Amino acid sequence: MEHPFLGVFFHWLGGLASGSFYVPYRGVKKWSWETYWLVGGFFSWIILPWALALTMTHDLVGVLRQQSAGTLGWTYFFGAMWGVGGLTFGLTMRYLGMSLGMGVALGYCAAFGTLLPPLFKLFIPAIPVPETLAEIAATSAGKITLGGVGVCLLGIGIAALAGLTKEKEMPAAEKKKAIAEFNFSKGILVATFSGIMSAGFSFALTAAAPIGTASAAAGTSELWTGIPKLVVVLLGGFSTNFIWCALLNFRNRTGYQYFAKRVRPEHAALRAAGGEHAPLTAADAGSAADLVVPRFRNYFFSGLAGATWYFQFFFYTMGETQMGRFGFASWTLHMASIIIFSTMWGWIFNEWKGSSRKAHRLIASGIVALILSTVIIGLGTWLRGQAGPAH
């Protein structure tokens, strides 16, 4: 049975987890980015997916064994594709800044991840999507749902404009300090690539549909049938992130950090909000004198960040099971809720402090549009459920 508004609520919980996962990393000290990112990744992409799938679903290993090579291969491939998108998302932040970069990249991600699967069904009938985009648009409920997607993309665009306005208003010195490598044209290209690749997660879940069906046949409750999919999808994401982080560990000579009690002097001033490998400044002199690594603290906060990151997909799959044949809109809801809650954290950490009223009005308008879009999409899905299955 479909419960679209419950699905929207689950997607909001997923967005809260995604918009909040980076906060615990602020507590990590004396580790490089690649070190704490990979530790968190073990929790989010390996440990929790297997632990929860084994305890909350039936016959996980048997379900995976009965899948075809095509199902497992495409699910893994699209998961790896999503992993590359996640890595280049960081470059988007570097070239465009947090506000503009997140708005643009997630805008592309929402559009591609939401609309391409049903659009591709026109050309690839075997793709496991209930309906094509044309079939969805042929019903009143479908038109309302697509309208909600449009409002969401509008909200994301307004949020991006707010970020651009904020960054244009920044004094030159502050702008240089905040976005040392600001490059609009390069940033837009990277954001486009990141958005397209990150949409691979939506494709991966679509390719993994037979896994959910088999899990349900094995006796798993419908609400949890998406959890076994994550074992394969996130393994793909882990693979690309592991390779990249291992290469950075080798290049930056930071592989020792996982077990070392003390950090090398050249890494002593690394902070949680970036872990960049830059020369020490006079302001860093005091912190450079302390070489002791708070290992328990670092593993705890990295693990907490990784667990929070995983739960965005945990709640995503729960929400998707409640959206019925309009599950394609789940990705849009996910992107919208991420922007809502990441913006909330931006306000808490004073990222919008000193911005003009225009910038504040724009970001507030963008958030209102995003919230409205989730209501419209939920309404469209509910109306479809009331009308019964399409013929």
Number of strands: 0
Structural class: mainly alpha
Helix proportion range: over 70%
Quick one: overall form?
Answer: globular
Percent strand equals under 5%
Unreliable stretches covering 5 or more consecutive residues: 277-285
Rg computed from alpha carbons, rounded to a whole number of angstroms: 21 Å
Distance between the termini: 18 Å
SSE pattern, N- to C-terminal? HHHHHHHHHHHHHHHH
Q: Give the domain tally.
A: 1
Number of DSSP helical runs: 16
Average pLDDT confidence is 77
Largest sheet: none
Task: Describe the protein.
This protein has one domain (4-277, 287-387). 71% of the residues lie in helices and 0% in strands. The chain has 16 helices and no strands. The protein has helices at residues 4-20, 33-56, 60-65, 69-96, 98-120, 133-137, 140-169, 172-178, 184-198, 200-207, 209-217, 227-251, 285-288, 295-321, 330-348, 357-387. Helix 1 packs antiparallel against helix 16 (357-387), helix 2 runs antiparallel to helix 12 and helix 4 packs antiparallel against helix 10. The longest helix has 31 residues, at 357-387. The radius of gyration is 21 Å and the shape is globular. Residues 277-285 have low confidence and may be disordered.
Reconstruct the topology from this structure.
Layout: H1 4-20, H2 33-56, H3 60-65, H4 69-96, H5 98-120, H6 133-137, H7 140-169, H8 172-178, H9 184-198, H10 200-207, H11 209-217, H12 227-251, H13 285-288, H14 295-321, H15 330-348, H16 357-387
Helix pairs in contact: 1-14, 1-15, 1-16, 2-12, 2-14, 4-5, 4-9, 4-10, 4-12, 5-7, 5-9, 5-15, 7-15, 7-16, 15-16
